[in-house]
Amino acid sequence: MLLNPVLAPVPLKSRIRSIEGLRGLAAGSVLVYHTWLYGSPGLQLVDLGPLSRFIFPALPIGVTLFFTLSAFLLYRRFAAAIMRAQPRPSLKKYMRSRALRILPAYWVILLVVAIVFHAALVRESRYVLRLGTLVDDAAALLKNVFLVQNYDPDTFYTGIGPAWSLAVEVVFYLTLPLLVLAAGACASRASTRRGRRLAALVPAVILFLLGLSGELVTAFLFSGPAPSWNGDWHSVLDRSFWSQADLFTFGLVVAVLSVDYEDGLLRLPSWWRRAASIGVVVALLLAGSARLAGNGHLSYYTYEMLAALACGILLTIIVLPAGTRARPGASLLESTLLVRIGIISYSLFLWHDPLVRWLRHHGLTMGGEGGFVVNLLLVATISAALSVITYRYVELPPMRHKGRSAQTPIQVEQAAARDDSWVAAP
């Protein structure tokens, strides 16, 4: 790392808008994907040419982007304290903040979906899911309430479908304090900034090795094709934090780099943004090639890791711009539309999947290319309306009780964006 005392951090307001834009982009990509996947009557996928063959199947990368954002936003305060030899932020407040940010909206939407509209996913057998209510199965309802449904093949991928990744996130939330303590213990033996930097990278190494071990064990126990969404132990292991842990790695690394950048200890050459942008494209192309190469474990896990690398590089471009010149894609990510989608993205993510399934189940969706456009507009409009209501009346009130002085919705959200993150994925 090279000293560069002239380099100034990017204004916080700009970074908040860019990160919200990334959230909006990720949430929008998954909404489009689910509308394409589940919206047509009879589940007949609409053939949109190259979009259907190459673009739409890759849209779940929004899941990985959310994981990357979560790791970056939640770890950077701890990384800063470790690297600067400052007191560690309160782990108790961190856990309280996580609970207040995630649980209220999830519980409200789950109960409305599962009890009022009977739009929850209910597993009838290993291969069959249907829409229904969880009221008749108290055990399944409780597992979904506490986000442990994916540890049992009989309730795997039930309730709100995208919440499987929220269950992964919860384990990450619980694991992060242990990783911080491990990094702090390593840093206590270091006498230089370089040593503390290496200590701050320990959690990234641990998660990478943990995820790799989970993938190897899963591939060893279950030979053959990559897992699907069936109610079996193959899918349970693959969608567990054990096998998903390495996808958080790059967010932790970017958090460490951002601290050095903000402290003026990281010099970025003028050409690095172009190189990083090319790196994102190359990683995505390689990921796509791995996906098309086959349906085995090797291609599946290679695809996920390359997708995570692309998300990490993209995040680096956003939070570590060189100098004061415009960042690639900044105008798009900081656009009013994407920022507003990013602000309501948590509720949007929880609402849209049950909604598109419910609309299709009641014959309210259309087939064909034109039907896909109509379905997309319908799902996006209704989901956005529900999300605005949920955000205003369910998400914001608990956020005001996190001990922050912010009072207005915008102030609360800006304060949350500095050190907070929600993540849910399909």
Q: In this structure, how is the largest beta sheet organized? A: 2 strands, antiparallel
Query: Helix content range of the residues, please?
Result: 55-70%
Number of helices: 18
Q: Detail the poorly predicted runs.
A: 1-13, 404-410, 416-426
3D architecture notes:
The chain has helices spanning 12-38, 50-55, 61-83, 91-116, 138-145, 163-187, 193-200, 202-221, 233-238, 241-244, 249-262, 272-293, 297-319, 330-333, 336-343, 345-361, 368-399, 409-419, and strands at residues 120-123, 129-132. Strands 1-2 form a two-stranded antiparallel ribbon. The radius of gyration is 21 Å and the shape is globular. A hairpin with a 5-residue loop joins strand 1 and strand 2 (129-132). The protein contains 18 helices and 2 strands. With 426 residues, it is mostly helical. It is 67% helix and 2% strand.
